[in-house]
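Example record used in the benchmark description.
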Amino acid sequence: MDIRQLARGTVAWVRLERVVLTLVRRYDLDVARVEFLDADNWLSTPCVVDDEWFVKIVSTQNARVHSLLTAGRNVGAFTSGSGGFFDRFETPLEMVEHEYEATLRMREIGCNAPRPVEAFEVNGLGVLVLEYLPAFETLDELPEDRVRALAPKLYEMLGLLHEHGLAHGDLRAENILLCDGELYFIDATRVQEERRRETRGYDLACAMAVLEPRIGARDAVRAAAERYPTEDLLSAREFLDFVRLRPDHDFDSTQLRSEVEKAADLHGR
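Model output (structure tokens):
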């Protein structure tokens, strides 16, 4: 059994069935076609309903795993010279309510994200309903030339979040989608609003870590420097070793750090 599946746990079918029946009642459906997805994630049981809604079902086990991951990320933030800035969730309902609000806020400022429909609780399970994007590719599925062309847009979207005092907090290739030629962000996590400088640097480090294996450190940093000032690039540099420890990032932190320092020198720090 995959470690992520083991960590995520299994939700009993009778509980999943209750969620589906609740959706049928809420949306006044006669029947519903449900496809449960074999998704590579830790934090929910995802499914698609009638090819219209993407539904995340979050259990108490998922909330516990999120708390453990959050603790680990905060320890990593301390090792980067910054205090921890990730917040944990107490309940499955709190998890889905946060993602609903984060997705709504992203859309309100003009950042592409699936349309959030609602978040609610069924028998102790948190349920998040989003617009279903039927035909998308994640950034790691795209060819190199396409990734290179999209890099400026990725930093533009991230910069838009930061300009409005928001942060993503879990930026990785699987959370960056391409649908109908447009980039979308999904799965934003909770970070402390008063730690904007640190979270901006962390997000930027994650974005460079996503791009470096595909387009090289020089181009990843060059595209970032077109959108972000030197101060933010140097802040991101301090998080590169922390990001490298995450199992969902595989990149050359030494090369990225070197290119960041070259860019900083070029712009007179």
